[in-house]
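Running co-folding for NAP.
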Amino acid sequence: MASDPGCGTGPLFSLAGQVALVLGASRGIGRACAFALGRQGARVLVNGRDAGRAARTVRELGEAGIRAEAVVFDVDDLQGATAAMDAAEARVGPVDILFANAGVQHRAPLLEFDLADFQRVLFTNLTAQWALARHAARGMAARGHGRIVFTGSITAILGRENVTAYTAAKGALHALVRQWSAELAARGVTVNALAPGYIRTDLTQALHGDGEFDAWLRRRTPAGRWGTPEDLASAMVFLAARESGFVTGQILAVDGGLSATM
Ligand SMILES: NC(=O)c1ccc[n+]([C@@H]2O[C@H](COP(=O)([O-])OP(=O)(O)OC[C@H]3O[C@@H](n4cnc5c(N)ncnc54)[C@H](OP(=O)(O)O)[C@@H]3O)[C@@H](O)[C@H]2O)c1
């Protein structure tokens, strides 16, 4: 008889005793994932630029019984950000789970897209995520365990007008997930990405009131609706769990079937 494979002998995906840093956790997808990680037992470090918004999220997490604290910094300030990450680790312990999720959008037609806007979006969405995740990865690799999850996008899988900088950044993140996994898997660090479809958050606010877009999206998405930040939560926990240690280099679309269909 085969021996018990061990799956399911305890609660799968417990994050008890782990520290999770969520970049861009004050609102939207990051906030929902902070709740999800916290509900599975992780202690959550809530990042954002706006101290008031981060503090409100920390308060709400606390009301839900989750241990959380704000780590306020602008990811574009790499020096300040790494110093704040180090200080947070000195207070609460090493970061086991990094959700590199902070991101911005700028919409304009390709032929009019300003180079400064292109560089700004690329810096926040790609360069800063790369630099801060690498900072966390050094400690994870030294300790032999870590989970890094980037937020990609289905705009890196399917072309869409007016989001050229955003697409460039997210496409590069998708490529990095595979490249980082090649370097970090043997060190106990997995690297994956969530690729959300259209999620109702402040980032997509410009589209919420656009009836034509709304109707197109509902028709085009097999699930027939916009995503919510909470739709990302279970996928986040799955990728963050110790039990998912053999899952690396993957882009997990969470999009109601949009990118799987014509
Ligand atoms: N919504 C969608 O449909 C969708 C689809 C695909 C991918 N995504 C990606 O999902 C991630 C989260 O987006 P969201 O929709 O949840 O957006 P959101 O509601 O606008 O939230 C963005 C978060 O990122 C933070 N942030 C932005 N720039 C930052 C900076 N320079 N330094 C530190 N924090 C910064 C914000 O902090 P403050 O509150 O302090 O500004 C906020 O917590 C982004 O990477 C986005 O590209 C979203």
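Result summary
Residues 24-30, 47-50, 53, 74-76, 101-104, 124, 151, 153, 196, 198-199, 201-204 surround NAP (CB under 6 Å).
Helices lie at 28-39, 51-63, 78-92, 115-143, 164-184, 205-208, 211-220, 233-240.
Job closed.
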